[in-house]
């Protein structure tokens, strides 16, 4: 296989379709943190997120082998759409709405990769992240989803709109209201982030 540094996602997909199994490993390694973090933020359960993450790559393999992947799609966005649909399917099955856990026993940022220079900054960042996540967990589901997909999955608003089956203006509006609500909660609770 060619140098993994120079391969684009599309080239890796094509290599996998042509029988190069290690190309899928490259795609997983390249995008696992962002995809897993997004799944985890939506389902709020590490073990469930791991299951959905595994199911995601089974679906990806099935779709790639059956020719259901279109090259004009970006791999990451395509994978994120499948992951989101798997999360939605899960919640339809259990008929519950996702909320972000704020208990001390679950650190939502365990799945994210942060480089932290020293202990004091680490503690301050951790406290700020925890406060922000508590505020995000209080938002209505539609606003919470947009925040997670934009800031943790790093999707563009056009992609978020496609994923949530709404207009770009609706996604932007949800983000605006989410930020206004967070700002209002910060002022009400007199938090220092």
Short description:
The protein is mainly α and 193 residues long.
Low-confidence stretches: 96-116
Largest sheet: number of strands, sense, barrel closure: none
The fraction of residues in strands falls at under 5%
Q: Please tell me what the overall shape is.
A: elongated
Helices and strands: which structural class?
mainly alpha
In percent, how helical is the residue content? 55-70%
Number of helices: 8
Give the CATH architecture of the largest domain: Orthogonal Bundle
What is the typical, i.e. mean, pLDDT? 78
Instruction: Kindly report how far apart the N and C termini lie.
Output: 47 Å
Question: Would you tell me which CATH topology of the largest domain applies?
Answer: Rna Polymerase Sigma Factor, Chain: A
Count of structural domains: 2
- Rg over alpha carbons: 18 Å
Number of E-state strands: 0
CATH class of the largest domain: Mainly Alpha
Q: What order do the helices and strands follow?
A: HHHHHHHH
| The CATH fourth-level homologous superfamily of the largest domain | RNA polymerase sigma factor, region 2, helix turn helix motif
């Amino acid at each position: 296989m060619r140098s993994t540094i120079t391969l684009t996602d599309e080239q890796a997909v094509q290599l996998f379709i042509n029988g190069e199994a290690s190309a899928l490993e490259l795609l997983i390694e390249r995008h696992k943190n962002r995809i897993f973090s997004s799944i985890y933020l939506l389902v709020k359960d590490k073990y469930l997120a791991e299951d959905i993450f595994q199911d995601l790559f089974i679906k990806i393999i099935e779709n790639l082998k059956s020719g259901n992947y279109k090259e004009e799609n970006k791999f990451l966005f395509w994978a994120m759409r499948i992951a989101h649909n798997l999360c939605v399917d899960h919640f339809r099955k259990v008929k519950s709405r996702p909320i972000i856990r704020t208990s001390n026993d679950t650190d939502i940022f365990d799945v994210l990769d942060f480089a932290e220079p020293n202990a004091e900054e680490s503690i301050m960042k951790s406290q700020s992240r925890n406060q922000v996540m508590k505020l995000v967990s209080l938002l209505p589901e539609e606003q919470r989803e947009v925040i997670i997909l934009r800031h943790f999955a790093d999707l563009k608003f056009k992609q978020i709109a496609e994923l949530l089956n709404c207009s770009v203006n609706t996604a932007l509006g949800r983000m605006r209201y989410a930020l206004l609500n967070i700002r209002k909660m910060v002022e009400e609770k007199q938090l220092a982030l």
